[in-house]
Amino acid sequence: MLQFALTAGIFAVMPGADWAYAITAGLRTGSVVPPVLGLAGGYIVEVTVIAVGVGAVVSSHPDLLTVLTVVGATYIVWLGVTNLLELRRGVPALVSPAPAAGTGTGTGTATGVPSDGLHQFLRGMGVSGINPKGLMLLLALLPQFLTPGGWHSGVQMALLGGIFVLEILVVYSGVAVLARSLLRSRPRLATAVTVCSGIFLTGFGTWMLLDALL
């Protein structure tokens, strides 16, 4: 189990679409908890799918996997473009002190960008949960650490997946909080990071689309 925790930890700290979204979450004035929980929730769905055996069915049907990839990639592209378009309304970041009491916009952020917790949770869940790359990674990783003759394979996968989700929570919370701490008083850097996150998400999703369709 320790070996799995170390291996899964390596994957958790590898930058990707999840990291880009966690950084974006850190740049918003709302709590980082909902989006990070959303990212973890997406992986809980994937672990559950694998534990009950659906993951193997998906991986054995190329057409179904292609459809899921296209859906996930399209969502990630949409999320990246949305982040870039939000710059036109103001960077959704902590780039200045919060407004004095009674002078806020009522939107939940210093820039007028909505910061609805459920909305951010669902966005995070979408980034990780409908990304077939994460599903295939877990599908390849989890079976390697099962103990022959031990508990039911589904139970073992669920436990190992739980360890991975806990690591995801720790790593992505750290990424979001660190982004917030470093960029609180650096509006130009916050803008640059927001642009880079949007471009990365858009590019990553586009690459997934091309890889699935070509």
UniProtKB/TrEMBL annotation:
This is Homoserine/homoserine lactone efflux protein. One of its GO terms (molecular function) is amino acid transmembrane transporter activity. The lineage of its organism: Bacteria, Bacillati, Actinomycetota, Actinomycetes, Mycobacteriales. It is a multi-pass membrane protein. GO terms for cellular component: plasma membrane. Keywords: Cell membrane, Membrane, Transmembrane, Transmembrane helix. The keyword Protein biosynthesis does not apply. InterPro entries: LeuE-type (IPR001123). It is found in: Cell membrane. The chain crosses the membrane at residues 32-57, 64-85, 155-177, 189-210.
